[in-house]
Amino acid sequence: MAGSDWTCSLSAMHEWESQDYEPSLPVSEKSNPLTRDIDRASAKCIVRMLQACDAQMFQEETGATYQRLLGERVVETVVEVAKRVQLVLKDPQDSLVVLSGCGTSGRMAFLITSAFNRALRELNQSSVYSYIIAGGDRALLSSQEAPEDDPKLGMLSLKKACEGKKRVLFIGISCGLSAPFVAGQLDFCLQHPEVYTPVLVGFNPAHQARDEPMPGCTFTFRSVVQRMQELAKSQKAFLINPAVGPEAISGSSRMKGGSATKILLEVVLSAAHAATFTNTPVTHKGILQHMRAYEKTLDKTYAQTDGITALLEAAGQSLLCGRRVCYMGWGSLALLGLIDASECIPTFGADYEDVRGFVSGGYKELNNNEGPLISLGPDFCIAHEDFLHLILPSLNDQDIVLLVYTHSDDVSEVAELARRVREKTSNLHAIYHRVDGDTAAAVQQEDFNKLCLSSLKITWPSPASESLLHMQWELSTKLLLNAVSTGAHVLKGKIYQNHMIDVQVTNSKLYCRATRLLRKLSGCPESQCEEALLKAIYEVDELTVGITSCDITTHTLTARNRSKVVPLALVCLLTGCSLVEAESRLEQQPIFSGGTSSTMLVCVM
Ligand code: F1P
Question: How far apart are CA 209 and CA 203, in angstroms?
Answer without folding.
Answer: 10
